[in-house]
Each structure stands twice: as structure tokens, then as C-alpha cells.
Amino acid sequence: VIVAGERQVRSLCPFCGVGCQTVFHVRDERIVRVDGADGPANQGRLCVKGRFGMDYAASPQRLTVPLVRREGFPKRHDFGRVPDDWRDAFREASWEEAMSLAASGLARIRERDGPRALAGFGSAKGSNEEAYLFQKLVRTGFGSNNVDHCTRLCHASSVAALLEGLGSGAVSNPVSDVRHAEVIFLIGANPTVNHPVAATWIKNAVDRGAKLVVADPRRTELARRATHVLQFRADSDVALLNAMLYTVIEEGLVDEAFVRDRTTHFDDLKAGVAAFSPEAMATVCGIDACVIREVTRLYARSRASMILWGMGVSQHVHGTDNVRCLIALAMLTGQIGRPGTGLHPLRGQNNVQGASDAGLIPMMLPDYHRVGDAAGASIFETLWGVALDREPGLTVVEIMHAAMAGSIRGMYIMGENPAMSDPDLSHAREALASLECLVVQEIFPTETAVLADVILPASAFPEKTGTFTNTDRRVQLARQAVPMPGQARQDLDIVVDMARRLGLDWRYAHPREVWAEMRLGMESIRGISWERLEREGGVTYPCPSEDDPGHPVVFIDRFPTPDGRARLVPTQLVPADERPDDDYPFVLITGRLLEHWHTGAMTRRAAVLDAIEPEATAALHPDELARLGVASGGRIALRTRRGAIELYARADEGMPRASVFVPFAFAEAAANLLTNPALDPDGKIPEFKFCAVRVEPA
Ligand code: SF4
């Protein structure tokens, strides 16, 4: 609908990895309405966040002027929500003064303590161009690989397993491919809440006859559509999945030709699952052996079976093992390389795929060239004209430990909020506060920003133009719809300014120039020109040349491994790092709500979304609430070995007994004060989906 006085800007939704295309209706330089556009991921659909969430950008709480910490003002880190008087710690500064202080603070540490005393967190909410330039700044301006972002907290374990097994960390098939699937195996994911438009494709597929298997410790909304619901015990993923692998082998469901021609290490896998019969694993995972066998047959025998998973799989100390099992399941049965098959880790943030592709991770350069690999490094040494550190950098949680230990002294954080998103927040906030120089580039006074020495006011999503890569590997264009408030600047311009002040001769006048440079170094996107994106709306990589249409389905006849084959990797049972006991008898599971995205910095400043879900709540089974003597809506206290919070209880029949689910978007009851920083050894992802907690009436 065209309304007089309004203009329309075609762009994207910034609230999850589905990558819905939008039309922003703009009046008086504000977004007044959002419609779904006919993009490949959404075909006009939007969820409540996409439709009603964009007013966050016009919030009066936006940072509009550079701020510098007043001399000698202490960094208080023992707060719950950001204190009302946070601004007392800062004074306004000119851009020149703020940038000069920030750059000189970081440069001083680099000169005195060496490049590895600095670190940077970029953002999966920013564009590909921002992610690329940020990691380039850390690698060439700071001089180390200490650069990471929130992929470490969501799918790092998935990427580790996929790179190891298949040679590529991205999805094999787009979400919408569920329409071609006969069987959809959804595990550890709640798309109705976290990827709502993706959930609609799954529902449509079920309506057309696809069989849906939902495996999750919590009975989620999509379970109502499922033919089989496997409400397995939290932390027993490997037991369940290895029992399925055992069944495939024992019952002769192996695609022999596929395994022979396209995989390696089958004998290792076969030996590895020999002790995992469904009968033996039934008591471990809580799923009847007959059901495990039935579901396995369903998956293995169908014409096309597709696996989708979320952070219920990845956020464990055995997250990489969980994904190794899923990969093996698809490989043994040949359920990959065709429409309606394959492996799809549902990406959380809107550009976590693109930021990872762009090298915003400490062990990989752009396009997943390992930092220690001479051939890969030489591509970027030539392109950037500098010698690169060949040692992998530290990951998100490791950087916090290094800050506490004093070996990291300075950080530059662009658009991330580790003071809300990291596990064991008390420790993370203390680590951030201990830094000699913390520069935070943000749009709001987040829990992280108020610990900074210098705050640089930046651009919100609808104020910038750039490319974003959705969970399907599809590169799409976001276009600036509204101006920035006050003195706020484009993130890209701030990073370029910082680079120049650190001695780099950078000149980029527009994001398309950054994209052009990225294409020179990254073969996967070489054929995706800016003009093509404007013309076609989106192109799915790998796309090596401009006449290549892009490839929504990959691994059709080979894997991008040195020998073209997938590697099968056996796994064993690894228990959660912290099991319930008499003192802490419940299991804590953290995650998101439909209305609130991640740490809530954006959605809690969106009027409609915050009106729908204004309070922090914890979901428990009604029987547990009755046992505690607490009514739904009553206050409860949660305590772990790391911290305590109070919040409202919400009865949820889908919750397993002796478990509690807490969203991590609410600063006043920050779930991550409770969580365990124990890491998966391969993906270095924290165990957000399992730790021991005590629940009491408040
Ligand atoms: Fe936005 Fe994701 Fe909702 Fe689509 S599904 S409208 S991308 S939050």
C-alpha cells in the first residue's frame, strides 16, 4: 500500500538469520510501517519482530555523541541492569578527541605489550563489509588474530564439525528446501520462536505431507505438527544420535555406494557406535528403543530427508560431537546433495554466516583459510600488503580470561554486548572493567558500553547500506532508509577512521568498494557483484563467476575437502560439565523468546515487542511449580555457583521436569549471571544449554 507522504525502501529484517526481505515505509525520516517483500526466504512473510521491531532505531536512548570516561571515574561492574546514572561517568567529546583517545590508547598497548595484548569483538548484526574491515583492522592494525564475535556463542561447534567433516561450515540446503523433503528431522531448535518464518515453511511442508520428527528436551510448538516427538534427556544428544547411527548400520540402512564413493573412516565410525544400541541407550536418553529404530528407518528410507538444528545441539561441551553425529547420519544414508536433503544449522543473528565468512573469527581468514595455512595467508598478505600473524587468536571466552589475567589490556568492541551475552557475567564484566583501554562502538548504552573508556555512537541497521548473508548462504542487500541521529556515524566510517589513526592507509568511500575488495580475496563470492545484488535481490554462494547463478544446494557430487570426500568421525559420551546435585538440583537451559532478540538491546527498545513481553520470566513444568508452592506468575529465585537472579515463573507443560528455561534478553534478571563458562574443546562454545541451578520461591 502506497501512502501519500511516505517513501518505500527495500531492505531486510535485522532480527534473525532467516533473512526476510522487507519494505520500510518512511515518513518524516522515521520508519512508520514494515511490510514483507517477496524475497526468496520469506515471500512476503514477516514475524512479529520484523513487522513491529524497527522503532528501536528511533529510541530516545540512542547514543548521539561521542563519550569519554571522566578521569579517575571507577568502572562499576557489579550492576544488574545499566544504572540510571551511567552517564555521570562520561563527558561528551568531539569525534576528533574521542577517536584520538581511543586510537592512542590502543596503540600505546600495542607498542608496549605487543599485538596480542589487544583484541576485538566485531558483530554478527553488522554488514559483511563491516565484519571484513573490522577483522582486517585487528589483523593488520592491531597485528594479531585476537578477533571474534558471537558465532562463538551460537554455532561455533557446528562450524567446527562441518569444516572437519565436509570442508565447509555453511548449510548444504536452504530452509525453504523443506518443501522438497519427505522427512524433516528437527533437533535442538525452536524455529517458531527463533526463526519464525522458517517455521512457517516447515508447517507448510507438513501440511503438504512431509513427516516431521522433533527431537528436543523441551516440547516445543512444532511438536504439535510432528509425527514423532523425541523428548530426550537434556545432555543425551550423543546417546540418541549414536543409537540412530547404530540402527542404520545394524539394520542395513546404509547407502553403500554413497559411503564407498564419498566418505572416509566408515570402519572407525562403525566401531565407535558398536556399544550404542538403541536398547542400551534408551535408559540414557529416555527414548524407547523401538521409537529410535522407527525414526531412524523413517529418516534413512525416505526419498529426501533433511536435518535442521539449533543451539540446543551446539551449546554443549559436546556440541561438536553432537554435530559430528548429525553429519554421520546424513552421510551413512546418502541424505545430502539433493533438494530436500542435507544439513542446516539454523543461524541466529542476521549476519552470523556472513561475518564468519568474512573472517571475523580468530582461527580463519576470510573464506575459511586457516590463519596458519601459508597458501591461504598469502592471498591476504598480497591483498592487504602486510605480513600476518600465523598463530590463531583467542576466542570470546578465552579473551575474557586473558583480560582477567592481564595479558589482554585493550579491546575494541563493535556492536557486541559481551557484558550480557557471555557466560558467567560477573567474571566477564569484571574482565571488561579491568581493561586499560576499552573502546565500544554502539548505538545504545549497553551493559558493555557503560564499562568503556570511549564510546563511539554508531549506526543502526536501517541507517546503513551493506550486504548481509542469511542462514541459506544467500547474500542480500540492505539499504539505508533513515538518517543517523545526532553525531552518530556509520560503523564502516568509524572503523576506517580508526585504521588510519593506527597507521593504515585505508580509503573506502562506499561499502561497495569494500565488497569489491572482498571479492578479490574470497572465491566463494567472486561472482556476486554489487550491481548483481541490486538487480537480482540476492545471490547464493558459492558463486565463483558473474555468469554463475549461485548454488542453493551444494555437495551434489563432491565435498570441498582435499580428497572430495566427507570424513566420518566417531564420538563417545561426554557428560555436561556441571551436573545437578543435591545443592543445585535443576537443569538451567537458556535461550530466546519470540519477541526478544539476544541480549534485548534492540527489541526491548521496540515499543510493541516490549509491551508483549515486558518482564523476565522463567519457564518450568507446572508440576515443578506446584512442588515449589509457586503459582504461575509468582516470583522465583534462581541460584548457581556463579550468581543469582529473581524473576517471574511461567508454567510450561512442554518443559521437562527438574529443568528451568530462562531467556537471556533481560538485564534485570540476566540469565548469563548463572551460566557455566565451560567450553566445547573444538568449537570453544560455552555450555549455555546445561548447568546446575537451585530454584526457590523468591
Ligand atoms: Fe525477521 Fe527472522 Fe522474523 Fe524473518 S523470521 S521477520 S528475518 S525475525
Automatic annotation (TrEMBL):
The keyword Metal-binding applies. Keywords: 4Fe-4S, Iron, Iron-sulfur, Metal-binding, Oxidoreductase, Repeat. Its EC number is 1.17.1.9. It is an enzyme of class 1 (oxidoreductase). One of its GO terms (biological process) is formate metabolic process. Coiled coil: none annotated. One of its GO terms (cellular component) is membrane. Residues 6-61 form the 4Fe-4S Mo/W bis-MGD-type domain. GO terms for molecular function: 4 iron, 4 sulfur cluster binding; formate dehydrogenase (NAD+) activity; metal ion binding; molybdopterin cofactor binding; NADH dehydrogenase activity. In the C-terminal section; belongs to the prokaryotic molybdopterin-containing oxidoreductase family. This is Formate dehydrogenase major subunit. It comes from Quisquiliibacterium transsilvanicum. The chain holds residues 243 to 940 of 946 of the full protein.
